Structures
1.
Amino acid sequence: MRRDPFQAIADPTRRAILVLLASQAMTPNALAEQFDMSRQAVSKHLKILAECDLLQTNALGREVHYSLRPAKMRELDLWLEQFRKLWADRFDNLDNLLSTKP
Amino acid sequence: MNNKLRFDFDVSDDNKSVTVIREFAAPLARVWEAWTHPRILDQWWAPKPWKAETKELNFAVGGRWLYAMKGPDGTEHWSQAIYSAIDAPRSYSYDDAFCDADGNITDELPGSHWDVSFSESDRVTTVRILISHRTAEDLENIMKMGFREGSSMGLGNLDDVLMAGA
């Protein structure tokens, strides 16, 4: 299932995961240790980030490591998506206005 | 609504400008009016839950549009647009900058140049907006501001940390 990348950063935990992975690849366990939540909860967030096409997995040693997909995490793309959404919302408002007036 | 209405959003190759193209299922005259009359503009310009409030709009070359984006928590972001060219009802241009409630420009933040044009075909009006900045860095900073205006979520220093880790 392909997700809107906006959803990736719509959650503070996911934002924090992105920050962590920006500097180094990490195993799911190592990530879970950074947060006050279960491994399962962290896995749910990782799943969403993967569906947003932001993560890649590498086999470093015996465990799977997550890292950021460099092309997807171009910083400008993140902000562009938010900006685009602002315009989309704005235009939805205008659509509604144009359709309701006589 | 109508899913077939075009909505394009592109950044230029030099990363200094953004082009937004959007079609509306309405006659050009009404779309033009929605973009240039303060009472109508205020009804749609701000993405929810924000509200746009125009303090002044003098739609003439040299005139200005002084307006605020007001958030649900009382936050206000003021901007001022000075119209540099108007060719009604086809196009207009202005220079936009952040300011205070009295229209005093905030020097620390970059301004931008806007070219807005309207065309109609088969009862669909296409609006093209070209937003130009002096530098690629200005564009990036403006987008971050726009994001804060359009959403109550704060990404904080995420970008700083990402840059540090790059």
2.
Amino acid sequence: MDIGAFMQGVSYFGDLGVWLSIFVGVAVGLIIGLIPGLNTLVGLALILPFVFVLPPEQSLPMMVALFAASITGGSITAILVNVPGQDTSAPTLIDGFPLTKKGEAGRALGAALTASGTGGITTAVWALLMIPLVLPMVMALRLGDMVFIILLGLTFIAVLGRGSQIKGLISGGLGLVISFIGFQTTTGVPRFTFGSIYLYEGIDMIALAMGLFALPAAISLIVRGGAIAEVDAKIVAIRQTRALLQGAKDVYHHWGLWLRSNLIGYIVGLAPGVGATAATFVAYGQAKLSSKHPETFGSGAIEGVIAPEAANNASQAGSMLTTLALGIPGSAGSALLLAALLMIGIIPGPQMLTKHLALTTSMLLTVIIGNVLAVVIAASLASNLAKLSFVPNRIIVPAILFVALLGAYAGEQQFGDVVTAVVFTGLGLAIRRFGYSAPALFLGFILGTLFEKYLFMSLGSGGPLFFLKPVSLTLIVIIIAVIFMTPIKKMLGYIFRRGVKAA
Amino acid sequence: MKMTGSAYFLVVIMVTMAIVSGISLNMEYLELKLLPLILSITIFALATIALTREILSVRRTTGSEATGAAGGGARLVRRHLIAYSWLAGYFLAIYLFGFLVAIVMLVLAYMRTHDGRWLAAISLAILLPVLAYTLFDILLNIDLYQGLVFIWLERMTWVRG
């Protein structure tokens, strides 16, 4: 690993502005994580406008810190309030809240924060150490291979995400089509602008992010009405440090489970498109299978808290490495991180591990710092923070609408972007309502221009058969396998069941 | 045969992709038309498959289930339209009066309509614009949109002055 670049990345933390950005990211992330109905994507979309106005050494760590802290915040409400603040904390709730009911909330929280924090830190170190191993592989990729890497990323996030596979693919395709609005990269000729000068520059990324993520979340809160957490407002006060330390000791005693769950989270995070939620459920499942007392799961088994928490933050470092090194987001949140990089003119790929290695290093170090800060703040203020989940919608909704439309405007200071955000809110609502994938659509949009550029450059240099190379052909096979995996499994299952019936 | 909202959305996608295909065919250069054409045809085909599945699954649903679902669906659509109208109203307020005034109007209107207390509403109505002005105008040097009314008033003052 380039020690000079590593030290340069470390040197960014000598700037007070970077620490302030990380602190803001952690604070916003914890709040977003605590409030059910708001998720990491909403938080990242809301701070995306700051990428334009802050230097990358501050804006990117802010996003990374928010990402880490929101996962931690979700665990607090899961354990104390019986409502998962984030999807990733759903398995934690299964055994976390029963522990609270038994009077062991401090222990559960201590275990969750320790497992989550150390998981995030450990895997960030693994990611840093993996850079020298990943770099030769990334440098060997050709232009033509990048075309299929982008397609692979889109396919993964469309097919492996939530909802129907066909709808995921339609979402990704729609995103690509939307990206074609405006000047075409190779000819400079405008497309699908219908004579509008505003559309010559294409659809604004921030406005689209607000329309797909933040504003539909606000609309859903308006429709839902009332308070967010519909539970008894009594929150257990976490006063005893001893209880928190007991939870930390539990993680130490179950170090094997912690390590396995860490690995699961990291590997799942490396795989594009799968996301942390899947990692947490897989980790919970393996914890139950490997436990000597599986019958205790669901009624307050501490392993049931340790396993998903060790996996959730662990996936962040893995997904970040895939996003930065290959330009394929490991998760929906990483797709927004990718958008931020593209907005400031940095194209993820080999240059993130060479020219911009210092920035990559600083982002992975931020995962460590963000996790530490989030754990410290959460441990100190858990019961007070959990009260945020009872903040009524009538306060949260105006705040989100305000920040979202202001954020859409702030990027380019064009009122047209506010119009775009409002118009795309309709699409965002339809996508939510009918089971399509907003992350796949957004990813298609942000990668569309790059995809077209790489495609025509490859056609220009390699002709129409540019894909007849080992790496490209392998990627094509993987793409086809991923798309047809589910229908083939269904068909095989049907044939097997018929065979069993006939027998 | 009653169409679900999801089916209508798929029809909208299919119509849009048909339009995209049509426009793409008339484009001059191959670089302009190639990807939009391939993608729009692919999405059209996928949407057709999805619509077929949707229609077949609706047919399998029993009559009473369908009626119940339709009633609940209409209520949900109405609630979404009301929610969207709040966004549209806020957008209109921004267009006419600018961000700072519009947020005051939104907070007061929304919180009072949803049983919020005056003190909380006024506190938030003061806090948000002050925060926005401090952060964007002062710290980040971003001029916030003033609104058509204030822009017009400013011009009138300048003309008369």
